[in-house]
Specification:
Elements (H helix, E strand, L loop, with lengths): L6 E4 L2 H10 L7 E5 L8 E3 L2 H10 L4 E4 L2 H8 L12 E4 L6 E5 L5 H12 L8 H6 L10 E3 L5 H9 L5 E4 L8 H4 L12 E4 L11 E5 L2 E7 L5 H14 L7 E7 L6 H10 L3 E4 L1 H5 L10 H7 L5 H9 L4 E9 L2 E7 L11 E2 L2 E6 L10 H9 L2 E5 H7 L7 E5 L4 H13 L3 E6 L8 H11 L7 H4 L2 E5 L4 H9 E2 L5 E5 L7 H14 L2 E5 L8 H11 L7 E6 L7 E6 L12 E5 L5 E4 L5 E4 L12
Parallel strand pairs: 1-2, 1-4, 2-3, 4-5, 8-9, 9-10, 11-12, 12-13, 17-20, 17-21, 18-19, 18-20, 22-29, 23-24
Antiparallel strand pairs: 5-6, 7-10, 11-15, 13-16, 14-15, 24-27, 25-26, 25-27, 28-29
């Protein structure tokens, strides 16, 4: 069963150490720690009960290394529908007890078993079917689905009461059913109700529990831009016509050039199955087995068949075509039946995805939850070495691709190539990925290719940009509100932008009286540009204009100073400094506690309210 981004909730370093030990064994998990007591948590929180309630409401699986009482008091007011509850477990700090509290058949029992194996303890599983038979009929193992979950409870109740239940097995002997046959259940031939194992469509009304093995592969071919609802209706009608159960569908298979076909992605999401891709050469190898080879299709895409060949390729060498190519309005589909459970991850390749992520200036407190979720989801993490180091244990166990400064094109090309191989890739930048960072280069390379030659496989990729808190926002927040009125940003680096262009922009900003955020103010070799920028701005605003120097934001070495424009000098800044230069309206003043605050009024204080 798919479990949504499990979260270890810990209150101290002992719990955090246990969580870190378990994270590599619990895919996609992260550690949330109580702020002030847990260092280096993936996500810090302040109020434990509120945080638990928030995670539960988001549908996140919770592994709480806290007392069960705390969890119960937090979540009791939210309990309404057990069919919708996420997994919730309590785990003792010493690792001796792991108890699924909620969502036993929504992943809690599975998580408890995984944790128990790692810690060499026995999980305290209390759901009746699991404790008696070692199996929950509404939570079968990977490769099986329940077509009518509402029938599972009365069937299991009958079994627990010793009443007769029969087994109707319509599946091939080659399909592994030991999880059920060796569960110690005494089936009674001819008894009603019954458990039925089949890939056929579920009857409209039945008291039988239908368990569907994932043994069908659906191949799809279609014209570019086909309507989503038309493809969905086509598939629905085909399954009804041939009496096939959608719950036995393992995956949708197609040719790789259809990776970005919106209708195929839509239908796969609706059915909740993955899309698996095959190149033309792989599909052409299936030609001897297809029933409707086409020379036209071969001339167009390089294989004599798409839908039939894709279905057969996904279902395996011993599969047979049970629905030959069906046609409707620019769409084709076919269905293959495998003699074994189909594991989608082991056939073809998946649809690649590239998440371009801004992780904020430094501290985990400033990293957006969406950024953390995307990093947890990724199989491969690409980025500047320092930024990957900042992620710490969050990327343990993932494929890490580190690059140095100056290797920006290489790291973006690597991220695109990995995603084009079907990987889940996170390309990491500090601050916001769209501000002087990697997002713009991603789209530039997608449009033009690495050497001026467009790469179609890059253009087909799903890309997702995750916003982050930028350095200028963090710097402004640390000192007050210097960006309270119109502002702009200028990078002083002339590696990619000619200096005369930078000078022109500085003069325009000075004339416009913008608050200015200067990025890349100096480097090891470039020292004079900051002084030139200062002199340009001094022609248009007072020497006493407040200037904020924010260095190492969000890190232990963080330092924020306020000086005047006249005092601004290259010796005061380094490569990790953001410089905020006020407008003629910006104000700096000393607070009662001796701290400086800087703000740029927008005029609210001058506005006259009418009553």
């Amino acid at each position: 069963m798919s479990i949504k981004s499990p979260v270890f909730v810990v209150l101290n370093e002992t719990g955090a150490a246990l969580a870190r030990k378990l994270v590599p064994k619990v895919p996609g998990s992260e550690v949330h720690g109580l702020k002030g007591r847990v260092t280096k948590a993936d996500i810090p929180f302040i109020k434990t009960l509120d945080h638990l309630r928030g995670l539960f409401s988001e549908g996140r699986a919770i592994i709480a290394i806290v007392s069960a009482g705390i969890v119960i008091r937090a979540l009791a007011p939210l309990l309404a529908d057990k069919t919708q509850e996420p997994a919730v477990l309590a785990l003792s700090e010493d690792g001796c007890s792991v108890v699924p509290l909620l969502g036993g058949h929504h992943g809690a029992n599975d998580l408890a078993n995984i944790i128990a194996v790692v810690l060499d303890v026995k999980p305290a599983i209390t759901t009746a079917g699991d404790s008696r038979f070692g199996v929950g009929l509404d939570n079968p193992p990977t490769g099986w689905q329940v077509a009518n979950p509402n029938v599972a409870k009365p069937i299991m109740t009958a079994l627990l009461n010793g009443e007769g239940v029969s087994l109707k097995d319509d599946t091939a002997k080659s399909i592994n059913k030991n999880w059920l046959l060796e569960a110690g259940i005494n089936f009674s031939e001819g008894a009603k109700p019954s458990i039925r194992l089949t890939h056929a469509r579920r009857p409209e009304t039945t008291n039988d529990l239908i368990l569907s093995p994932s043994i069908l592969a659906l191949g799809i071919g279609c014209e570019r831009g086909i309507a989503r609802n038309e493809l969905e209706a086509f598939i629905h009608d085909t399954f009804i016509k041939y009496d096939l159960g959608i719950n036995s569908l393992s995956c949708i298979a197609t040719i790789d050039i259809k990776e970005d076909e919106a209708a195929i992605r839509f239908v796969a999401n609706r059915i909740d199955v993955p899309v698996r891709l095959f190149n033309a050469g792989e599909l052409e190898k299936e030609t001897p087995r297809v029933g409707s080879p086409s020379d036209y299709v071969f001339e167009t895409v390089g294989t004599h068949s798409v839908s039939e060949a894709a279905a057969l390729a996904a279902a395996g060498p011993n599969a047979k075509l049970i629905v030959s190519k069906q046609k409707r309005g620019g769409m084709t589909c076919a269905v293959a039946l495998s003699p074994n459970i189909i594991l989608p991850d082991e056939v073809g390749r998946g649809c690649g995805r590239l998440a371009v992520i801004g992780i904020g200036p430094g501290t985990n407190d400033w990293r957006a939850p969406e950024a953390t979720n995307e990093i947890v989801r990724a199989t491969d993490i690409v980025g500047y070495q320092l930024y990957l180091d900042l992620l710490g244990p969050l990327i343990d166990g993932k494929n890490r691709h580190s690059y140095l400064l100056g290797e920006e094109r290489d790291r973006v090309a690597e991220a695109l190539n990995l995603a084009a191989q079907g990987r889940e890739v996170a390309l990491v930048s500090s601050g916001d990925a769209g501000i002087y960072a990697m997002a713009c280069l991603v789209f530039e390379l997608i449009e033009h290719g690495p050497m001026g030659e467009v790469k179609p496989e890059w253009q087909r990729l799903e890309t997702h940009v995750v916003p982050g808190i930028s350095a200028l926002q963090a710097a402004a927040a640390k000192i007050g509100a210097p960006l309270g009125h119109d502002f702009c940003t200028v990078s002083l680096s002339d590696l990619l932008t000619p200096w005369h262009v930078i000078e022109r922009r500085l003069k325009a900003a000075a004339e416009g009286d913008f608050v200015i955020a200067l990025y890349n103010p100096v480097s090891m070799k470039r020292r004079e540009q900051l002084g030139i920028a200062r002199d340009i701005l001094l022609t248009a605003r007072p020497a006493e204009t407040p200037v904020v120097l924010a260095r190492n934001l969000g890190r232990e070495e963080e330092k924020v100073d306020v000086i005047t424009l006249a005092e601004l000098d290259a010796e005061l800044v380094d490569m990790l400094t953001v410089v905020l230069i006020g407008s003629s309206e910006t104000r700096a003043f000393m607070r009662g506690n001796g701290q400086m605050s800087v703000y740029t009024p927008r005029g609210y204080g001058d506005k006259k309210e009418s009553f």
